Amino acid sequence: MVKNLYSPSMLKSYLSCKYTIFNEVNEKKLNLKKIELSKNDQLRVEKGNVHEKNYLKELKKKFKKVIDLKNSDLSKDEKVPKTIQAMKEGWEIIYGGYLKRDKWRGEFDFLIINRNLKSKFGDYSYEVIDTKNTNKPKPDHIIQLGMYTYMLEGTQGVLPKRFTIVLKGMIKEDVQVNQVNEFFKTHRENYEKFVTSEIDRTKPEKCSFCQVCKWKEECEKIWIDKDSLNQVGGLTKVHLKKLLELKIDTTSKLSKQDLNKQIKGFRKEISEKLITQAKLQKEYEKTEVPIHQTNLNNINGIKGFNLLPEPSACDLYFDIESVEDHIYPGGLEYLLGIYYIENDKVKFKALWSHNKIEEKKNLIEFFEFTKSHFKKYPSSKIYHYGSYEITALLKLTSLHKVKGIEYDHYLNLDKFVNLLNVNRQGLYISENSYSLKNVEKFYNFKREGDVQKGDVSQDYYSEWVETQDQHYLDEIESYNKQDCRSTFELHKWLLEIKPPETSWFVPYKKDEDMQLRDWEVDMITYQEKVEKSNIQDAKLKQLMSDIIGFYNREDKPAWREFFDRRSKSDEELIDDPECIGGMILNGKPTPEKRSLIYSYIFEDQDFKLRKSKRVIIANNQDIEQKDNAGTIIDIDYKKKEVLLKRGTASGMLPYMLSIGPDKPRPNTKLVSNTYKFIDTLIDKENKYAALRDFLDKKHPKIKGVKTGDKIISSEDFETEIPKIISNLDNSYIYIQGPPGTGKTYQASNAIIQLLKQNKKIGITGLSHKVIHNLLQRVEDMAKKKQFNFDGYKRGTLEDEDTVFNGEFIKTYEKDPVFMDALKEKDVGQIFAGTKYHLASTFYDQKIDYLFIDEAGQISLADLISIGNIAKNIILIGDQNQLGQPIKGTHPNNSGQSILDYLLEGKDTIPEDRGIFLNKTYRLNSKLNKFISSNFYEERLVCDERTDKRIIKFNNKSLIKNDGIHYMEMKHKNNIQTSIEEFEVVRDLMKEMIGSEFEDNGNKRKLNIEDFLIISPYNTQVNLLISKLEEAKIKNPRVGTIDKFQGQEAPITIISMTSSDSDSLPRNREFFFSRNRLNVAISRAQVASIILFNPLLLDSSPKNLGHIKLMNNFFKLLDFKVN
Questions:
Q1: What is the pTM of this model?
Q2: Which of 111, 287, 426, 857 has minimal CB crowding within 10 Å?
Q3: Is the CB of residue 335 less than 8 Å from the CB of residue 480?
């Protein structure tokens, strides 16, 4: 039988890896072998059929006209006309019909009649429903139903508005077609082109799908036969690209490179690592004897074998089994396994959880058991393999709000030992992976049982959920125990081969240093107070319980990274975006008063550190060297130079240096204010009304406006908004300002009006930069209105990023200045600072109006900790632009930003809930059409003057008109830099600079200042700056999206940089972020040009959210420049 290439399942395979389609087509011809369906796969199909039949029974109870085509004797081709006939006859439910459109075909579960949308059959149409025996929809479910919907459109002549997935428990998940349709449209067209003309040219390339691919073994055979570089362990796409450019295109060629010579374009450590890896793998091919050798680069310092502590009499070996969201809602860490040998007896403790209550109970038991064990064996450790166990415990302690303190103490005492780090840093091995299963060859570990891999254990647990057959749990427990025992055997082997010149790791702190700290006592106390309290509002009580510990949870990832960096090499820190790694001292330091100025040169790397930041030696292992590395006083991206200023009392900095952020700063005042607010709730004090209104999500209380009525009666915002704010009655209001609508202008205008009424105004935001932006606009407005006032900004005079000195507003360092100013009566004043300043107790209820700018970046916990200072709260922002930079894991909605909490997923604020600034003065009509329809429910309109900004592009310019322009890039293996995209940016700017620009009658020539060049990555930003300067384009405005929020220019050019989804250095949510796309495009007044490789979209999404995010990018393809 000829394989149907045009089915939803084949499209899903194509998105995972194109080469799978080649294998499917040539399976019989080339006698290819793929991993067959397991018994569990077959059982899953059977369970799915039962779920489908049960839903059919439910439909038959509800609908009278139900036709069953599935259980007929008709062939698939015969079912097509029968399906169409049933649709013409208007059957309410069509079960098991068959659809065709062009070459595509497929059998659906159900079609359901929709009487609210007409079709060519009459005053009705149909929608697709499919049953899936899972807790959450998977991407392949969405792809399958999306393709059925496409075929249905072809049959009935109208595209359905939605399709529905019926999950376990008959729970329905509706998917709006307009949120995913561009995704299907483009992928369908690309797939058709691939099958028609490209399939025979495709080659097997290593990608993220290899780990689960049924054809993996076939591809590996090809790589070995062709001596492909794809088989070399640790080889990245960037490495591959560089090696191919150097004509080193086989593993043999790589293995024959001279270890004493650096491969051109590679750092010494990487060059040595890749050559050694290739040599060992080629040697293993000949001898089939596993080979390992010590990595001499890491023989000293706290790396490799030096991470091993002295073995204890009773160490623990730990492993976790988990299932993902589609098996158990929210995921479940369902088995914690602990293996140890006590008094020469093997012991294994298995903690099983089949729901969230049991998960919490077993988390507590894990820490109680280990705590008791450490009392008996103080020097014992918990050994594990990989970072998953530590990450999972962090997540669990945060979500369940238990044992977080014990977790912190274990980290501080270095109780966890990750043997994967020992392997990676200490050894080269002849395997292409450091996975535990690969490493087991070296200590001859033999596994038993049906379950051999982690993904199979997930399948087994899924089957247990369905069948309750104990056999599945027994197999999983056996597998988990073997993982723990394998970790034990690995530890023994590492101790045997540990080089004698290495040392034992000694923890910095001892058990007696880890008594409960005061802040931990307070956290426990308040958790108990809330639980025992009589707070009547159950939602508010839960929120307060969840908010306790927020700052501790939020800082945990940073603390963990801080300690992890201690054992990392300079080479590894180069790949850490929080650091600048592997810097080399450039000449002698220069004296300046009591400090030294150091010049360091760095290699290309992505980093977030900026001028004026205080930094530490990220991997300091010298006990005589202080952590403090000084302050960054300048970064020259063109020269790749960092200037550091460090006090002479701290000693000399080393020749090679890696710098990173300091430890998280204390949040004492913020936490104290949170407890103060909780006390008012428990004691039933009628305080902080504005904050209470917000947390209760009440309608704003405004004098003269009836609750539920439209808040603003006209679009004369300049007159109306100050009145509304002035009439706030101890409440709050949100002013949503989409791009170019003048939210900062409206806020500054309102602030001046309030100052004239002798009100005390607080101003804050996530950063000093945000605060300064609003302060400058207030100063400008005051001058325009010829109004004088006094303003006080908190900052550090030595840190220029924190200093604002205007005509009316000055920066001060000492609290008494602010305290004295607050005492002045009947005078309008401004008090500005970050949350750390405004949380000062002397502000409590002293501020009449607190303005929070870019409110979408402020956490709910932050508002609770500073909301007590104000009688009224004004939120200025836009939830569809850059959001809150959250790091920790938080229970329920306690980790949300204040706007996400308030809006609950809505794109715009309802008219009775806040003020929506509906007119943009930046975006012209073409740009606004895309922005308004995709981000603002088509409520955003553009001022007529925006279309009077006209660029008459030079004849030589590739861009000929205004609006959005997509330029297709075809580069390969780019991750964080793209020289190809620089060349396009350079050419575009040279073509367009000098074009005539008319802005409402004012004519001039476009210059460099009229372009914003935007990229997601700092590395690409640095490349663009240096290369554009070399191309005689001086002082270009280049930066990340974060840098340019709030700015604008006639033209934006967006360089997306990466070549494909496997090349993305960060998660997809970051790269395809809906909010970031909105900000990037909406900086433009006339034209926005976006450069990206369509292969970025040619990938298998992980969930429905990914499809929705990518759908916006697919819409950009319609703007392609020919």
A1: 0.84
A2: 287
A3: yes
